[in-house]
Amino acid sequence: MNRACCVCMFLVSMLTTPIFAGVKVTSPANGSNVGSPVNYVASATSGCSKGVASMGVYVDDALIYVVNGHNLNTDLTIAPGKHNTVVEEWDYCGGASYTPIAIDVTNQTGVWVTSPVNNANVGTPVPYLATATTSCAKGVASMGIYVNSQLDYVVNGATLNTSLALYPGTYDTVVEEWDKCGGASYTHIKVTVPGSIFKSLQASGGWSGYGELPPNYDTCKNCGPGVTWAMNQGIKSPSITGNATKFSIGGTTPYADVLWTNPLIGNFSSQGMPDPNHVIVPTLHNFTYDTYFYGSNLELSQTLEFDINQYFNGMGFTWGHQCRIAGGHEFDIWDNVNKKWVPTGVPCHPVENSWNHLTLAVERTWDNKLQYHSITLNGVTSVLDWYYSPFGVGNWYGVTANYQMDGNYLQSSYTVYIDKFSLTYW
């Protein structure tokens, strides 16, 4: 079943979807000093319509690792010294592309952070990639990240790979390792996150709810018994902040949906930013959608959808993301031009009766393409860097945030709580 995205009320232009070929390596950095094992993280795109078949890592001209698919994330044991390494992708059409990465592997003990670099200006979520070595014969027990002296993240083992959703500002962060002999070592990393932010959007005014009934999924305010919904703000429990919002869906029509949308900047701005002279919206290129959600019966949901929208100069950009719970537990993204959901291969397994943390990072490129950068769920980051064209709109102008709940084959009633919902923009 192909459900339309929540922006189906807008007409779509006949633009084509661009395809960029190449290998993007996020760890290790070219020319960096690293400890062994070396953490390799990369993603690939291809001009081949069939996609990327596999990826691999060469060390000094020897192929030492291969994985199927367009994403690579592995730890490789490499001897101390300077090495020329290459991360390569092979597509289903017989083509290939690669990125060379020179590294210097040290045999010293300590924490080696390849991302972010010290004193960096970085967008949120901030990717942290690090490895640790120790003189303890039993090895490294765990690693963690402190943000302004508060422990924010911990993982077992000698490798750390996560993204932290930090608000705009400057931070003193520390990546630390603890070994199995009671010792520890650490590295300071100062980062500055640019941009502005809307906080506690779940508690904000300006929300409007609409039903969407199959088969066309046109929006309706009074949809009869086919789909029903409710939104209740100021919920103290369950809540992280004591100010969560409860969203509920029900009804009698199978596969009916409910869309909630909030105009943040531009037309009908709920944040006091109407931008009448059109000097804000056209300058914005980066957005990070960050939220926590909680449900006791999430398996009754067909999908949960989280969207960012930007409109100006007759162009519409909808970065649509849906967690497809029924039918595969997978994230899909929205193809604006062809009006369809595209599976990403990124798993989506939210935990019931627990707060799930979701962070979505997207960008409008210099040539007005939509870039889906990354999806982070409960500390696990998947980098996509997929590109699509925008669609055509009329005179609509602004930036909006959406949240949507989709009904299943029985249109079972269920509830989801949202808290700490923010949108960072710059």
Instruction: Indicate the low-confidence ranges by residue numbers.
Output: 6-19
Give the DSSP E fraction (strand runs of 2 or more residues): over 45%
Briefly note the CATH topology name of the largest domain. Jelly Rolls
Number of DSSP-assigned strands: 33
- Terminal Cα span: 36 Å
Residues in helices, as a percent range: under 10%
Total discrete domains: 3
Which CATH C-level class of the largest domain is it?
Mainly Beta
Tell me the major beta sheet: 9 strands, antiparallel
Determine the structural class based on helices, strands and strand pairing.
mainly beta
Whole-number mean pLDDT? 92
Provide the CATH architecture of the largest domain.
Answer: Sandwich
Count of alpha/pi helices = 0
Q: Rough shape?
A: globular
CATH superfamily membership of the largest domain: Galactose-binding domain-like
